[in-house]
Amino acid sequence: MDELVKKISGLGLPGILFVIATGASGGNVAAVVAMLSTLGGPLGLLGGLGLLGLVAVLGEYIAGFGIENILKLVYTERSKTESVRFLLKEIQELPISDELKLKLKHHISPVVVTEPDQALFREQSKLLMKNH
User: Fold this and answer.
1) How far is 72 from 114, CA to CA, in rounded Å?
2) For residue range 62-106, what is the model confidence (pLDDT) as tens digits?
3) What are the structural domain ranges in the chain?
4) pLDDT digits (tens, 9 = 90+) for 30-53
5) Measured distance CA(71)–CA(102) in Å, rounded
6) Is the dihedral of CA 53, 63, 9, 97 positive or negative?
7) Any idea what DSSP says for residue 66?
8) C-alpha–C-alpha distance, residues 50 and 36, integer Å
């Protein structure tokens, strides 16, 4: 058992994903192959194995650089071509902590408006104060 654990540990996160998939399928080889084929999309089983390899590489980068920094960089790059409003909504739906959501939102949009009415109210207040 120790040898098996060492080999799976050597695979890193892909090894863990493989163990979870195998356990969920009850050890059914056909189910594991089907899962890997599904993950591989048009590339089938080889694509699924490649995806597990990609997960390993990403896992190493995330461990070394930090999930917060990587997500900030990804959202900074995406904000160049996508609507910040869309990205803010996407961040809100991510399965991450509220603290990390707030950090990401402030990173791509330092002034985060949660309700459109608040922005309108602020603009109206500024106009009223300017006119008086």
Assistant:
1) 20
2) 677 788 888 888 888 888 888 999 999 999 988 888 999 999 999
3) 1-65, 66-132
4) 777 887 788 788 888 888 888 777
5) 12
6) negative
7) -
8) 9
Q: 97: alpha, beta or left, given left = phi > 0 and alpha = psi -120 to 50?
A: beta
Distance between CA atoms of 14 and 17, rounded to whole angstroms?
Answer: 5
Q: How many CA atoms does the CB half-sphere of 52 hold within 13 Å?
A: 23
Predicted model pTM: 0.52
What is the distance between the alpha carbons of residues 91 and 104, in angstroms, rounded to a whole number? 7
Q: Could you give the C-alpha distances from 24 to 13, 36, 75, 102, in angstroms and in order? A: 16, 13, 33, 34
